[in-house]
Inverse folding.
C-alpha cells in the first residue's frame, strides 16, 4: 500500500550548495575546462579502460526505502526523511575535495522498473571506485505517476571536482566518463526500459538513460537556448565527444 506522507518537498540540504554569486570557484572550474579543453580531451583519449569493483552486500531498493533518517552502508550515509521524496546517499569520507560546480547526471527509467533498475546499479553506486560521492533516488511510493519524477530523473548523481582548488583532475574526468558508460551498459543488459528525459537536460544520441545538466547555470524548465548552452558546457563535451 502507498505510504501517505504530507507536505512532500525536494530536500537539497545534503548538497550544501550556495548561490552562484557567492561561489567564485565555480567560474574558475568552468573556465579551467574551457581553457584546457583540447589538452584534456586528447589526454582522456589516451587513458586506459577502467574497471570498477562493485560493492557487495549492498541494500536493495526495498531496504533503501526503509533506511530511515540515518543509516550507514558501504561507507555511505543514507537518509530517507519523512518530508522528502528522495532517499539520499553521501560518502562519509568524500573522495572529491573541491567545491560543487553544478555538474550532475540524471538517470531516467520506467517507474515500474525502479526496483530492478536500482538493484542493477547498486553495486556500482556503492563502489569504493565510484567517482560519485553524493547521489539520490526517488521513493516511488511517494511520487505521482504524472509528476516529473514519475516519468524520469529518478536517480541524480552529483559530480564534484576532486582537487582542493576545485578543479577536475584528468583522472576524475576520465573515470566519470567511464563510470556513466558502465551505468548505461548495465541498465541495457538488465533490460530496463528507459524513462522520459527531463526537459531541462541534454544527452547524446547514444545515451538511453542518462542526461546532463549544470544546475548552477540552468533551470528545471529548460528551453532551446538553455539546451544549446548546456551542449556547449566543457564538462558535458568531455563526457560525450
Amino acid at each position: 500500500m502507498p505510504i501517505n506522507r504530507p507536505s512532500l518537498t525536494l530536500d537539497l540540504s545534503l548538497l550544501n550548495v550556495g548561490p552562484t554569486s557567492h561561489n567564485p570557484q565555480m567560474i574558475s572550474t568552468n573556465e579551467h575546462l574551457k581553457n584546457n579543453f583540447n589538452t584534456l580531451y586528447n589526454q582522456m583519449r589516451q587513458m586506459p579502460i577502467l574497471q570498477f569493483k562493485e560493492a557487495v552486500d549492498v541494500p536493495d531498493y526495498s531496504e533503501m526505502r526503509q533506511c530511515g533518517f540515518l543509516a550507514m552502508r558501504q561507507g555511505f550515509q543514507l537518509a530517507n526523511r519523512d518530508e522528502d521524496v528522495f532517499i539520499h546517499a553521501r560518502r562519509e569520507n568524500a573522495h572529491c575535495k573541491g567545491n560543487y560546480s553544478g555538474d550532475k547526471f540524471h538517470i531516467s527509467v520506467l517507474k515500474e522498473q525502479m526496483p530492478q533498475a536500482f538493484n542493477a546499479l547498486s553495486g556500482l553506486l556503492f563502489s569504493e571506485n565510484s567517482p560519485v560521492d553524493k547521489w539520490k533516488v526517488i521513493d516511488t511510493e511517494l511520487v505521482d505517476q504524472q509528476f516529473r519524477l514519475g516519468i524520469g530523473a529518478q536517480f541524480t548523481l552529483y559530480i564534484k571536482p576532486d582537487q582542493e582548488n576545485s578543479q577536475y583532475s584528468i583522472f576524475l574526468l576520465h573515470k566519470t566518463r567511464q563510470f556513466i558508460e558502465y551505468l548505461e551498459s548495465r541498465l541495457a543488459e538488465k533490460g530496463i526500459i528507459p524513462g522520459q528525459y527531463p526537459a531541462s537536460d541534454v544527452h547524446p544520441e547514444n545515451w538511453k538513460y542518462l542526461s546532463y545538466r549544470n544546475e548552477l547555470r540552468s533551470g528545471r524548465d529548460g528551453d532551446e537556448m538553455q539546451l544549446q548552452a548546456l551542449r556547449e558546457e566543457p564538462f558535458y563535451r568531455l563526457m560525450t565527444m
About this structure: The chain is about 30% helix and 15% strand. The radius of gyration is 17 Å. The longest helix spans residues 170-189.
